[in-house]
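Data deposition worksheet. Section B asks for the primary sequence of the deposited chain exactly as it was used as input, without tags or linkers unless they were present during the calculation. Section C holds the resulting structure in token form. Section D is free text for depositor observations; keep each observation to a single sentence. Incomplete worksheets are returned to the depositor.
Section A, Depositor: J.P.
Section B:
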Amino acid sequence: MEHTILVVEDEQGIREAIGIYMKNQGYNVILAANGKEGLEKIETNDIHLAIVDIMMPVMDGISMVMEARKQHDFPILFLSAKSEDIDKITGLNIGADDYITKPFQSMELVARVRSHLRRYEQILNLKNETKSEDEYVIGDLTLSNTTKRVTLNSRDIKLTPKEFDILKLLISHPGQVFSSQQIYELVWKEEAINTETIMVHIRKLREKIEANPKKPIYIKVVWGQGYKMENIQWKRRIFF
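Section C:
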């Protein structure tokens, strides 16, 4: 799959240099000189990642990203000469995925782009896989995506919306290990800043579906990697 990188930077020399770095890595590159142009490029192209300068004429990077985030969730890396923590926090809070300051090493920028593209592609694939109207059954545990109902031995289990979404993610991919960061980003649909909440939700889920939460048979920990749904007599019922 050929990825398209959008570079939004008002300084022509920097804009073109980044474009060359990205093209040398095999990416398709689209250039824009300000935030307004950047938004126009987003609407007319299939963008997979954007590198956006903060200080620009016509429309700055902050305003552009705030507008882009209303409809798009591809990774965005902010680029700025500023290094103060408040600028980084502002950028991340309004929807950026990463922040790199000028001057920068070309290979560092390339490495960050690769990392974010890999994660974005994984998340897209998992989202597509979990879009279904199916009922999932593992052992005596059943989850209906259509009715939002979970039963254990035919007994209804009351879950919060987030607990349901976490269980749905795990039960629809039996045996697959998900890190706390992956679970957070797939369920909350935002960057994982604090993943401790995943541990809390998993504990509560176990209390509701496991006969002995201290010796779970459904949701297992893979130490140092994350969580998985044990593949117990798994089958998938598809209704037409």
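Section D:
The longest strand covers residues 4-8.
Residues 106-130 form the longest helix (25 residues).
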